[in-house]
Amino acid sequence: MLRLLNLELQKLLLNRTSKILIFVSFILPFFVILLSSLKINVFGFFTLELGELGIFNFPIIWHLTTFFASQFKFFFAIVVVSMIGNEYSNKTIKQNLIDGLSKKEFILSKFYTIAFFSLVSTVLIALISFCIGLYYSSYNEMSIVIQETNFLVAYFVKLMGFFSLCLFFSMLVKRSAFALAFLFILYILEWIIFGLLSWKIDMNTAEKIQNFFPLKSMYKLIDQPFQRIAMSKFPEKADLVYDYAVHWHEIAIVLGWTALFVFLSFRLLKKRDL
């Protein structure tokens, strides 16, 4: 595993564009720190400081930071599709196979790279969230601090699933731009199918089916935290209540898609005449 990972990291670090995109994808999550220190002047009457509103208290901070950090995943998605696009355009994929790398090892090297960067990103978010929480949170008991750290697991799985989807599309079309376009097409397609289902059957059943779709299932791992923040400020508002927790069956769905995308990528490469 380390040999394949090291091989792939060398390729990425020798490419200037990839190095820049990797750097940016790791730097952007630190903007969560800027969010915590943001001060908003309300028409000159008073200054609203987000950090003093309690939204960075433990354990809600794990939910908030992982949700915002996951919005930056598209930058590393460009790295993933470029990995494959460059292999085909530079003919290095054929050379790697000639040099003794099997097709299975080729796909595994990409998957190990995806897992590695997903893990590094998760560790970064964990450290950022912990530091912000220690500074702003009113609760420092360890039992409260570690509550809801399962959002970090959900964040890791979400990145793995999304990047594996990017890997599959890259293997399918061989071009970076087309692979990214396929993500947008899949997003539109999922909503079209949902619209047809809600027209044919009731809305609740259509939503349950939609939660099994690739992109939707990844999004559902970490639901938006704004409604939860509003719930904490206005507990009497029953209409604000919603299920924001991380569910293990949702993680299992995304892991299933991840395994399928990696397997399909391997099958495509195995059948393709290089």
Overall spatial form: globular
Structural class: mainly alpha
Radius of gyration: 21 Å
- Total beta strands: 2
Order of helices and strands: HHHEEHHHHHHHHHHH
User: Which range best describes the helical content: under 10%, 10-25%, 25-40%, 40-55%, 55-70% or over 70%?
Assistant: over 70%
Whole-number average pLDDT? Answer: 83
Distance between the termini: 24 Å
Low-confidence stretches: none
Tally of separate helices: 14
Strand order of the largest sheet: 1-2
The description of the largest β-sheet is: 2 strands, antiparallel
- Count structural domains: 1
β-strand amount: under 5%
Summarize this entry quickly.
The chain has 274 residues and is an all-alpha fold. Helices cover 73% and strands 3% of the residues.
Please describe what this structure looks like.
The chain has helices at residues 2-14, 16-27, 31-36, 60-70, 73-89, 92-98, 103-136, 142-145, 150-173, 176-200, 203-210, 214-220, 226-233, 248-271, and strands at residues 39-42, 46-49. It has 274 residues and is mainly alpha-helical. The chain has one domain. It has a two-stranded antiparallel ribbon with strand order 1-2. Helix 2 packs antiparallel against helix 5, helix 5 (73-89) packs across helix 10 (176-200) and helix 9 crosses helix 10. It is globular, with a radius of gyration of 21 Å.
